[in-house]
Amino acid sequence: xxxxTRWLAIGEWRAHPVRALTAIAAIAIGVALGFAxxxxxxxxxxxxxxxxxxxxxxxxxxxxxxxxxxxxxxxxVLARLPEAAVASPVLEFDASMPGARQALKIIGLDVFxxxxxxxxxxxxxxxxxxxxxxADDAIFLSPAAMNWLQGRPGGELRLxxxxxxxxxxxxxxLQRARVGQRFAVMDIAAAQWQxxxxxxxxxxxxxxxxxVDRGAFERSLAARLEHDFPGRFRVGQPNDAEQESRNANLxxxxxVNLSVLALVAxxxxxxxxxxxxxxxxxxRRSEFALLRVLGLERRQLIRQVLLEGALLGSIGSALxxxxxxxxxxxxxxLFGGDLGAGYFAGVQPGVQWAPVAALCYFxxxxxxxxxxxxxxxxxxxxxxxxxxxxxxxxxxxxxxxxRPWPGLACLALAGGLTFAPxxxxxxxxxxxSIALLLVGAISLMPRLSGMTFTALSRRTTTTGGAARPxxxxxxxxxxxLARLANASGQAGIALGGVLASxxxxxxxxxxxxxxxxxxxxxxxxxxxxxxYARAASAGATGGLSPAxxxxxxxxxxxxxxxxxxxxxxxxxxERANVAVLARDVDPADPGRAMVLVxxxxxxxxxxxxxxxAALPPAWVSEAMSDLYGLQPGATLRxxxxxxxxxxxxxxxxxxxxRAGGAVIVRRSDYIDLTGDRDAGDAAIWLAKTASAVQVQDxxxxxxxxxLLETSVPSxxxxxxxxxxxxxxxxxxxxxxxxxxxxxxxxxATFSAQTLARAREFGMLxxxxxxxxxxxxxxxxxxxxxxxxxxxxxxxxxxxxxxVLVHVINPQSFHWTMQMxxxxxxxxxxxxxxxxxxxxxxxxxxxxxxxxxxxxxxxxDW
Length: 861
What we know:
Blueprint: H1 2-15, H2 17-54, E1 61-65, E2 70-71, H3 74-79, E3 84-95, E4 104-109, H4 111-117, E5 124-125, E6 138-141, H5 143-149, E7 156-161, E8 164-173, E9 184-187, H6 188-194, E10 200-201, E11 203-208, H7 214-228, E12 233-236, H8 241-249, H9 252-283, H10 285-293, H11 298-335, H12 355-382, H13 385-388, H14 394-397, H15 405-417, H16 428-443, H17 445-461, E13 462-463, E14 468-469, H18 475-486, H19 488-526, E15 531-534, H20 546-553, E16 558-569, E17 578-583, E18 617-621, H21 622-628, E19 635-640, E20 643-653, E21 662-666, H22 667-674, E22 681-686, H23 692-700, E23 709-711, H24 713-727, H25 729-755, H26 758-766, H27 771-813, H28 823-848, H29 853-857
Parallel strand pairs: 4-9, 6-8, 17-21, 18-20
Antiparallel strand pairs: 1-11, 1-12, 2-10, 3-4, 3-11, 5-8, 6-9, 7-8, 13-14, 15-22, 15-23, 16-17, 16-22, 18-21, 19-20
């Protein structure tokens, strides 16, 4: 039995090596992409989390604020706690660098306290300057930051502090910083003074005395701080679940969507295995029937077919796991761990072998191959030997594929799942809906092809109400349509390949085009001014004082100017911070300052049971509305200037820039509540006779002008789209790979079907059909099948894109978009599929016709 199994499998692969290699390659590519993305994401997230933990050192408890900084008066309260052995104050912020689009993380420490908790963060000064750790102008850089900034001990480092430049001296390096981690350390008092943060802290690290229960102390301290300072502080452990969840949530939806997108290739591979095994079983029906007559049992035949599929899956999965590891190593070395999205900027992870993940992806690839061979295996075992020994029974074997109820059931269930809520903030049911849509549509292809080509055949070959033959009917067209109408099972297999590849390509192309176009339109709508000035393109240390704002107002040619102030606050410990945007908003027409989701009328929505109308209004982004359950009329509490301030949610606006959520408040209300009159950005409207170039030149001539970044809306738009394309570079690559696999799959399917019809072509040659007419029949069949597959694929892809745009995207990233269609790309791929199928049918037909007609039909004599 083992010898027979080996002989049958090897013989089949020798006879059709290209088909086997195509199935193996499809599975290998799918497994490799999925495994590589998993390794890259896992390595980046692990390195990012480890880097965050390394900054906490040996702290047992951390006390942080709901705002970026809080008053240092809380430090002596914490330091005097009897359970605390050491309390180390920390000031942490991202420092802006003049002319740079990236910021440098700076950590201010008290070296006398930090030595007990975070000794790795203490800089190593030169031997003749031992007190540089306390100097007011000294800064220590990690090796990665030193290399990034091309600094050297004794050199200068220029950082932005408000509208001025702080010139610091590089006093040394941080020898024990993690590889690839970019940050700097300086004395906490010097950091407060140099960067205008006097009396401010970011967190306090506590090391507890021996014997103190960390969990009990954390709960009691949190309760005490909440009682004395409601809503101002967070108490946690450096490695607790909330911090882990927060780090993971930063990019979880992005990572999951990439992984699912990578598995699209594996799904296509599953169908190629099914197609390969189904056509192989059809071609060998008489061989299997003879083996059954000679004593081979049904279970042995099922095992034989499944074993052939398992071998394809095993080889493909093994190659995929190895290729995925190599691909992950190359990506991490060349592009880093953020895959263009910017979630893990500043870390340089290395690939780590993950045996559990490797086993999972190997099993997934093997399972996909077995699943693809399951239906052909049962069909081979179910066939009656006496019938299967006769030629021309292929379509009888495929008759079960034309049953409509499984496909209709899948489509109905898919429609129901689109209304299901997310699971753990992930669109699990949305993904299941797409899978069921694909399975249901593919299973309906035999019935659809039979109905379509039967109607076309009747319309082409008959005329009149009595169905009389048409005198001008083309024999080539008549034979092609008659064969397609009466061989709907085999046509369904070929259509499935076109449908799977083209529909997924259409769906992904529409989703990306919709997102990109929506972002483009959004940018144009939120940039109504003529010129924009920014105190710092990155970081949090740039700013404009009230006097400097007045200087900007006085620039010649400025007709009107509005200022923006952005602050970061924490509303939930397990979620990313929320951005608070203080800007000028007209409550009567807020749509001039933002893109409202439901239009201007939404601003007036104040339910009688909601927040009091006397509260100042606030407009929340879609992400914030979803994450925190905020609707117009609700009460929003924001921690501002050490107190919980209440606002009335006046509307929901669209924001593609901040996935963690953002809220807009009127700048006048913000100043009244906080007293903070500084600003970071300015929107400038010009006088009719003013020139944008001249106004930008005049701004740069101001005493602080060299530190301002000025731009016009078109420049911001181009930069935004460039960042978008970089973030979606991996998506474009995966989309291209899925298209290539689909093209190969369609070619392999048509080739296999054409070669399996050698006896049919021989009989046609016997009855007088010429070689050219046979090739014409094949080309017409390929073109007709592919055209139907393209039309059905576009319809299915459009439905899947609706799920992607209106279900998966809002549940993953919490924002909505409008549908847009990339017609040139869709037409190009459709034409490529059409030409590929027709050319493959012709090439395979020439090979099938290479033998003589007598040899082709001798088995039927």
